[in-house]
Design a protein that fits this description.
single chain; alpha/beta; Rossmann fold; GMP Synthetase, Chain A, domain 3; eight-stranded antiparallel β-sheet; five-stranded parallel β-sheet; 30% helix
C-alpha cells in the first residue's frame, strides 16, 4: 500500500519543516528551556549543529522532572497527555506531550501499521499495556482509529488471562494481534497447551520488547499463517524512533522516522559511526518534541547501520547503561548502588563487586544478581535485596506476579565468578545471555 499522504497543515508536515532547520530547533530549546539553556551555556551563541552538542546524560535529564515545572518544558503544559516510563520511585521518568505532538505520534503509528502489513478491514486486537501513565495502549489505539484505511479496534489491554485473550481473538474474529512479545508468547503457549492454533490471524505486531528466537518459534507454531513484525521502535523518552523496514524480514531492522527524528550511532568516545555493521550507542533527536525537547538522547540500545544513506539501522540489544527485563527498565548504576547499600557494614568488608546477569528461562526473562561477597546470613540479604528492588522498581514485582518475569535470583560467588571482558579483563556490569 502507498505511504500515507500528508496535508499541508498536519503535524507531520510541520515537523518536516522544522527538520529543514535543525539549528532553529536547538536555538528554540536553548531559549525556552532552562535545562538546555544551562546545558549549552558554554557553547558559542548563534546557530549550532548536533555534533557541537553534548550527548545527554539520562539521569541528569530526568532529574529535571517536567511535572514540577523545573527546567525541561519550554512552555506551560495546557493540552495533551502526561506519560511515564521506567525509573526509580524517587525520580520517575515523567514527560509531557502536547496535543499536536500526540496527534503527530498517532499519525506516525498509522503509517507504521500500513508499513507493517495491515489490510483494509482488519480487526486488530490491542493487547498493549494500558493505564498507570503507560503510553503504548493509548498511542497504538489512536493510530488504529486514526488510520486512513478502514480498521476495527478491539481494545483489550494486557491484563486479561491468556484464555480470555484467546476467547476474544476467536469470538471477535480478530485478524491482527498486537502487544509486547511476552504477551504474544503467553497466548501462544496457552493455545498449544490446549492443542489449538489460530490460522485466521495473518499478522502479529510487537513493540516495547525484543523478540527472542525461543519466542518466535513458539508464536509461529500457534499462529501458523501470521507474519511476525515490529510495529515500531521507540520509547516514551524518545518517541517513535524507527518504522518497520518493509523490505527486510529481520524485525530488528528499522527505518529512521524521518523527517522528525535524527538518529546517530556513536562509539564509546561519542564519535559518529556511519559504516554498516559497526555497533555503537543509538542516540536520538526528536524534532517533533518541542514541549519537552529531546536532543541527542541515548535510547538505551546498541545498534548498527545497515545503510546509513537510506536511514536503515539494526537494533542489537540493550546498552550496558540500562537493564531491561521484559518491559521494565532500570539504570544499571542504580542496581549496583542498591546492592552495595543493602549490605551491612560487616558484609561490605568482603564485597568485591557485583554483576547483573540476564537470562531466558521458560519463555520469560530472569534477572540474576551475581555478587562477589561472603555475607554472614545470605538468606536474610537475599530477602533484603528483593525488598530493595521492589522499592526501587515497584513494577518489577507486578510483572513477576503477572507471570511476565521470573523472580529475582541472587548468587553469592567469589571474584572468579564475575564474568570479565575478553579484551580488557574488566568486570562486566551487565551480562546479557538472552540474545
Amino acid at each position: 500500500m502507498d505511504s500515507i499522504t500528508l496535508n499541508e497543515t498536519s503535524p507531520l508536515t510541520q515537523a518536516a519543516i522544522w527538520n529543514n532547520n535543525v539549528s532553529e530547533f536547538i536555538e528554540f530549546a536553548r531559549t525556552h528551556s532552562d535545562f538546555y539553556k544551562k546545558l549549552y551555556s558554554s557553547l558559542p551563541s548563534g546557530p549550532l549543529t548536533l555534533s557541537q552538542l553534548p550527548i545527554l546524560e539520562p539521569t541528569t535529564f530526568w532529574a529535571s522532572n517536567p511535572t514540577t515545572g523545573d527546567g525541561l518544558p519550554t512552555t506551560p503544559h495546557v493540552d495533551g497527555v502526561v506519560l511515564a516510563s521506567g525509573g526509580s520511585t524517587a525520580a520517575p521518568k515523567i514527560t509531557l506531550v502536547s496535543k499536536s505532538e500526540l496527534q503527530a505520534v498517532s499519525n506516525y503509528i498509522s503509517s507504521c501499521l500500513v508499513a507493517a502489513g495491515v489490510w483494509p478491514g482488519d480487526r486488530i486486537a490491542n493487547f498493549f499495556v494500558a493505564g498507570d501513565l503507560y503510553s503504548s495502549f493509548l498511542l497504538t489505539s489512536m493510530g488504529i482509529t486514526g488510520c486512513p484505511i478502514p480498521l476495527v479496534l478491539l481494545p483489550l489491554g494486557f491484563g486479561l488471562t491468556p484464555q480470555k485473550m484467546i476467547s476474544y481473538l476467536q469470538s471477535q474474529q480478530a485478524t491482527v494481534a498486537m502487544g509486547i512479545t511476552t504477551t504474544l508468547a503467553k497466548i501462544a503457549a496457552a493455545l498449544l497447551k490446549e492443542g489449538k492454533v489460530l490460522p485466521h490471524i495473518h499478522l502479529l505486531l510487537f513493540s516495547g520488547e525484543h523478540l527472542y528466537e525461543d519466542q518466535r518459534g513458539l508464536i509461529q507454531r500457534a499462529f501458523p499463517n501470521a507474519a511476525i513484525r515490529s510495529l515500531a521502535y521507540g520509547s516514551m523518552d524518545c518517541g517513535l524512533v524507527g518504522r518497520p523496514a518493509e523490505e527486510f524480514d529481520d524485525p530488528k531492522v528499522h527505518k529512521v522516522n524521518h523527517p522528525t527524528v535524527i538518529i546517530e550511532i556513536v562509539d564509546a568516545e561519542g564519535n559518529a559511526i556511519t559504516e554498516p555493521g559497526k555497533p555503537g550507542t543509538i542516540v536520538s533527536t526528536n524534532l517533533c518534541r518541542r514541549l519537552v525537547p529531546i536532543i541527542r538522547y541515548p535510547v538505551g540500545d546498541i545498534g548498527e547501520w545497515v545503510d546509513h544513506a537510506k536511514n536503515l539501522f539494526r537494533v542489537l540489544g540493550r546498552d550496558q547503561k540500562e537493564v531491561r527485563v521484559g518491559v521494565v527498565s532500570i539504570e544499571a548504576h542504580q542496581l549496583r548502588s542498591m546492592i552495595e547499600q543493602t549490605l551491612s557494614d560487616a558484609d561490605r568488608a568482603s564485597f568485591h563487586g557485583a554483576q547483573i546477569r540476564l537470562e531466558r528461562k521458560e519463555l520469560r526473562d530472569q534477572m540474576i544478581f551475581r555478587v562477589a561477597c561472603a555475607p554472614a546470613d545470605p538468606e536474610k540479604v537475599n530477602l533484603e535485596l528483593a525488598e530493595a528492588l521492589n522499592r526501587l522498581k515497584p513494577w518489577f514485582k507486578d510483572h513477576v506476579a503477572a507471570g511476565f518475569l521470573h523472580p529475582l535470583v541472587v548468587e553469592w560467588v567469589d571474584m572468579d565468578g564475575l564474568e570479565t571482558a575478553v579484551t580488557t579483563g574488566k568486570t562486566l556490569l551487565i551480562v546479557d545471555k538472552r540474545l
